[in-house]
Known about the structure:
The structure holds 2 protein chains of 2 kinds.
Chain A: E1 17-18, H1 25-29, E2 33-34, E3 38-43, H2 49-64, E4 68-72, H3 77-85, H4 91-96, E5 100-104, E6 112-114, H5 121-134, E7 138-142, H6 146-150, H7 154-171, E8 174-180, E9 198-207, E10 210-220, E11 229-235, E12 238-241, E13 257-258, H8 263-267, E14 274-275, E15 279-284, H9 290-303, E16 308-312, H10 317-325, H11 332-336, E17 340-344, H12 352-366, E18 370-374, H13 385-401, E19 405-411, H14 422-425, E20 430-439, E21 442-452, E22 462-467, E23 470-475, E24 477-478, E25 484-485, H15 487-581
Parallel strand pairs in A: 3-8, 3-9, 4-5, 4-7, 7-8, 15-19, 15-20, 16-17, 16-18, 18-19
Antiparallel strand pairs in A: 1-2, 9-10, 10-11, 11-12, 13-14, 20-21, 21-22, 22-23, 24-25
Chain B: H1 3-15, E1 22-28, H2 33-50, E2 54-60, H3 66-70, E3 78-83, E4 88-91, H4 97-104, H5 108-114
Parallel strand pairs in B: 1-2
Antiparallel strand pairs in B: 1-3, 3-4
Amino acid sequence: MRRQSKPTIPRTPVLAKSPSGIRGLDAVTGGGFPRGRPTLVCGGSGCGKTLFGMEFLVRGIEEYGESGVFMCFEERERELSQNVSSLGFDLPRLIRENKLIIDQVKIERADIAETGDYSLDGLFIRLGAAIQAVGAKRVVLDTIETLFGALSNLGILRAELRRLFEWLKDQGVTTLVTGERGDRTLTRQGLEEYVSDCVILLDQRVTEQIATRRLRIIKYRGSSHGSNEYPFLIDENGFCVLPITDINLNYKVSTDIISTGIHKFDLMFSGGGYYRGGTLFITGSAGTGKTSIVSHFVDAACRRGERCVFFALEESPDQIARNMRSLGLDLSRWVSAGLLRFVAFRPTSAGLESHLNNMLKAVEDLKPHVVVIDPLSALNSAGTYLDVKSMLMRVIDLFKARTISTMCTSLTPAEGSDAGVTGVSSLMDSWVVLHNVEAGGERTRTLRIIKSRGRKHSNQARELVMTDNGIDLADVFVGPDGNILIGSARASQEQMDKTAALSQQQDLRRKKAHLLRRRKAVEAQIAQLQAELAAEAEDVGLEIDEDEANALGRTVTRAALAAEREHAGRQAVAAQTNGGKR
Amino acid sequence: MTTAVKARATARPLRAKPAAEWELRLYVAGQSPQSLAALANLKALCEAHVSGRYKIEIIDLIKTPQLSREDQIVAVPTVVRKLPPPMKKVIGNLSNTEGALVGLQLRPALSRSRD
């Protein structure tokens, strides 16, 4: 069970507080009841007023070292001790240790005749003696209104009560006064007139046959306080007020990634799994495989050697274990190994608070790594929408605070309907929707991830296939016309695709052979042409050689002729010159 | 009724004079006007109705506060008729004589019928 961190009491000289020691309450009152003043606790019968007062005293003695006086006007001392011994309060011991006095005031109208004026000094003296005897700092008057039934002179009684509360203030004791709730007033006799510093209302409400307990601080003079209605419960450890604001969303998160137990499902998340301490929400209509998925999750966790708590709210543990055997999952062995604990209860069997408490206790007890709630939607029958949501918020906060990986399922009423889950889904890190898809005269399960905080995830739908070896996910085929093919349509499409692939292969092989042949033919042709070319080139080469030789010959001849011509010319000139001289 | 009271009730006749047929106890808180008035009224009543056969014990709760718890006293003044049984309790200063007579059943007629 969650223990409140010691409330920080503001050290103002204005208003000192007396911590109640009641779990969760001091967080709501900002430190406790006004010290040295009376506080009124009112509520209908059976709402726990007496117990509230008794726990205030017992905690005061055990945790704060403040002795107490319990003055009861209704119950007998022995009955009172018996009633609270179930909560672990050992009143006889506290009385023996001189830390507690229980004074039962027996006053019955039938026994008493009133003959003139009187005062309640007897009560004052009695209370004063008791306070002195144990050095009490805390006093509970339960419930002083009984005096109104026994004494008929209201004028005297009211004046005396006013005096009593003033006197109690003078004694410096923190007093808790209980009062039965009236028709239109907080208390039948208007005690709130006298005790006006702090008024707390306890309420037990029955909505659709389910009782839930609420606590509200109506008034707290000189102090701020939580103004909401806070659910509370009474368990074997006493009162427990459950303020939502108790947890401030400051838990540490893990970056570890753990498997969901279904390999292909893991692969739909980037990183292959989901964060340890995360919450995964699985919704779907009846028969979509929610329990099977969480069973895989549990199985995987146990295989890793982690402890699990399986909250089964609709099926019995045996039934779940039997059904999962058809998927090849043996959950019973984890139970015997002490790794898995089933906690099964009918949500309608009690109010939400007690369920919450049961769950917290199981978690406290086993300290699991993994928690599964199947199905969450069953809790809707145990309270109103808002109640359930606020309860889940606290449960999930707690799990997150302890880095417990959580998987919750929820039954949605109709295909594709998000009714009743939208409020809850915002609390969850990941949300997976299972759908029944009907096509071609058959029903197929599909799985999609709607959200996954902080992780990339596949946007594709997958088909959920139940096999003897567990759940498998198959890719969903998109047909040629854009339709999603599932079930046997997928199988036939797969077959068709295989056939098509085969014939395509054969076709390819044929084409390859053809190509090969063609290549060979072309290569042969190339060779032939090359041969022809070579032959041609040879011929052309010979001619070129000849031609080049001729060309060379011609050049030489021309040069020779030129030289010849020059030489002949020079001789002619010389002859002309010589002939003239003679 | 706590055991302490029972023990005293059985112990008392040993100390009390056997003549006291009516045994009354007046619880007061100090010498308040109401206490004094109650005592005067009670004496007058007894003298008038059970003269010579009564005994009044005055208990000041301020001096013996523990008796307030043991004898279940809330209001003062309170008169308790210890004898004859059954025990009767009357609160107030007994200014209402008729009420006191009825409450304590001190009427001679009743006591005589008993004789």
